Amino acid sequence: MKPKLTQEQKLTWKLTQQLGQAIEILQYNGFQLQQFLEEQMKENPLIEIETESFTSDYTRPKQGMGFDESFWIDEEQDLADYMKEQLIDKDLSPSFREIVEFGIDSLDENGYLTVALTDWQLAFHTGEEMIEEALELIQSLEPAGIGARTLQECLALQLRRKPVPNHLAIDIVTNHLEWVADYRIEEMVLEYGVSEKEIKEAIQDIQALYPKPGILVAGRTSSTIIPDGEVYQSEGTWKVALTKWNRPSVTIYDYSLNQNDLSQEEKEFFQKYTQQGKWLQKALIQRSDSLERVFAAIVKHQILFFDQGPERLKPLVLREIAEELNLHVSTVSRAVKEKYLQTPHGVFPVKFFFQSGLKSNTGEISAYAIKILIKEMIDYEDKQKPLSDQKISELLKHEFHIEISRRTVAKYRLELKLPSSNRRKRRMHNE
């Protein structure tokens, strides 16, 4: 029984490992995939992989379509998007998800919460417990320390995430952080009744933390945008083609053929690397098929975008595509992560096509399209009497049959990095 059990355990571990690698390959963009394949060729002497070199002849979204550069999702990774992606696999009610996302949108670039809990509570007419639960969820996300209200809380959150939390360090950052800055070792020894060595170890743990965890995300950039697929029109139909570097060709050379005099060790060598090569072939085909299916489904749902432009972008969520393709939501999430599509309107991140939205009298409209309207209203407002968020809400209702609250207008305006009406008026007078 024992040999059989051991074999089954090895097989289970191998299958689990291969599944994990297949999932990892799916989330690679074209550039990351090429790097991965180069490593595979170094490790496996029996395979050869043909990949295409990259070109950089790609454009950002074109001008003159009702939006400008501020609507482009920057190459620099957005902290709010990064955190909202972590909510995908969490089973949250729509109302609670909105509360959590409001909190995420209220983080500054350093990752600190900028809204008071009482204001957060009033914004949703909900209880204190609900807001505290939302904050606790945000503070459990990556990077550690996110969602803190003070530097002390930020550092304590990071320390509590350690495999073995240093409770002495947690107490020091919570109650005596200034002692760390001044390196007041003796006072800490007297205060806590521990050895100087323990205090110095606690200080080392504290000094290894990040006082601005949001920068860890917002500071990461991709040096080059490489489209993973192209959307084009053929005979009146929108179609998708993966770029060539997303369809690499793997050749396996079996040098063991007709060589009966191989040693057992040599046979095992050829068997191992041949199997690895076959698995890689299969995983790459599966990745390409998954990407193509997901991209094609997105194009089908966003046909008005391709026909008429970005202002006709429809609301779309990952779950819709997942259910349509009979895939798990996390699979779709990995398929679109850090991927880009070349379109007639320019190159867009694939996640751009997933937009929240709401219903209007003329049908569903995406948050992105509403932002375009809000920006245009502010661009063409009477500069002597800038539009308040409440007035914008009323104009959207009366002129476009779109009903959104003043609070939602304020949220979208902040996402567009547009100041309030008071600040716009003050800025004009200062000029």
TrEMBL record:
GO biological process, alphabetically ordered: DNA-templated transcription initiation
Domain RNA polymerase sigma factor 54 DNA-binding residues, every copy: 268-426
Entry similarity comment: Belongs to the sigma-54 factor family.
NCBIfam families: rpoN_sigma
RNA polymerase sigma factor 54 core-binding domain span: 73-253
GO cellular component, one term: DNA-directed RNA polymerase complex
Species assigned in the record: Salinibacillus kushneri
Annotated InterPro entries: RNA_pol_sigma_54, RNA_pol_sigma_54_core-bd, RNA_pol_sigma_54_DNA-bd, RpoN_core-bd_sf
Protein name as catalogued: RNA polymerase sigma-54 factor
UniProt keyword annotations, A-Z: DNA-binding, DNA-directed RNA polymerase, Nucleotidyltransferase, Sigma factor, Transcription, Transcription regulation, Transferase
MF (Gene Ontology): DNA binding; DNA-binding transcription activator activity; nucleotidyltransferase activity; sigma factor activity
Pfam families: Sigma54_AID, Sigma54_CBD, Sigma54_DBD
Annotated signal sequence range: none
